[in-house]
Amino acid sequence: RAKEGGRNCVRFFEKSMQEAAEARFNLERELKQAIEAERDLTLYYQPQVDASGRLTGTEALLRWRHPGQGMISPAVFIPVAEDTSLILPIGRWVLRQACHFLAHTDTHKHALRMSVNVSPRQFHQADFVSQVHQAVRDAGIPPERLTLELTEGVVIEDIQSTVLKMRELKDLGVRLSIDDFGTGYSSLSYLKRMPVDELKIDRSFIQDLSTDSNDAALVEAILSVCRHLRVSVMAEGVETEEQLHFLRARRCDGYQGYYFGMPMPGETLLQSLGD
Ligand code: C2E
Ligand code: MG
Ligand code: MG
Ligand code: MG
């Protein structure tokens, strides 16, 4: 009887594995359709402000309105896209879309910046630099208004070739930022070798600033090193007044988080610029 139970258990396990594989396969198929039809994918924009609270730019954040499942978080579908190389057409679309939107904001007489997330696979494509060049040129925006957010995962692949490509991008005039800093394997010493304009301190360090003295010390150290290296610092996930005070007292350059605004549709952002 024990043997029979074991068999049932295996069968159950196989079934749930199969279901998970099917769900994943469907997600892939639907994501492929969405990007091919340029349908159901949309960009939201989250405000970025300076120490005085003035709007300086926005980060483009991808959203997928799934026909049956509602909004699916990029935290769920970006990893799928990365595994299947769907990230390549998606990334190209995001880049072009964000640049075009930035050109729109200019009619409102705001010289905003636009930050765009770039996945490691996207960055390491052979023609990535020319993709960026084309997107900027076609939208007619000044290149220095575009910031590419790279994660530490980009960097660890091969520092030599990564730095070379970063220089090519810098030659185009775009800005480079290291996203989610502190969560990966890279260290502050990399900043000396890389032509980086900005570093974004990961939300997990900002979250407990007022209660965790280790996080506070770390954030202080990052701010101090970056000031010496002339790298601008953006704090991610600022949600409270206390966090803002802590960061402002230590002269953090940029702020992004729910305290200042959620990611919002382009229309909503344009409306807020209008008045
Ligand atoms: P990220 O680039 O670090 O983006 C910041 C994430 O933190 C966003 O989540 C944003 O909505 C969220 N966030 C901002 N402020 C706060 C806050 O005060 N509190 C909290 N709890 N969260 C806050 P989102 O939009 O779900 O995106 C998740 C991740 O997905 C992004 O992290 C980025 O790594 C990736 N992603 C999003 N759009 C794209 C894209 O177009 N291309 C690529 N390659 N990745 C993308
Ligand atoms: Mg980002
Ligand atoms: Mg981040
Ligand atoms: Mg991220």
TrEMBL record:
The gene is cph2_2. This is Bacteriophytochrome cph2. It comes from the Bacteria. The chain holds residues 482 to 756 of 756 of the full protein. Residues 24-275 form the EAL domain. The lineage of its organism: Bacteria, Pseudomonadati, Pseudomonadota, Gammaproteobacteria, Chromatiales.
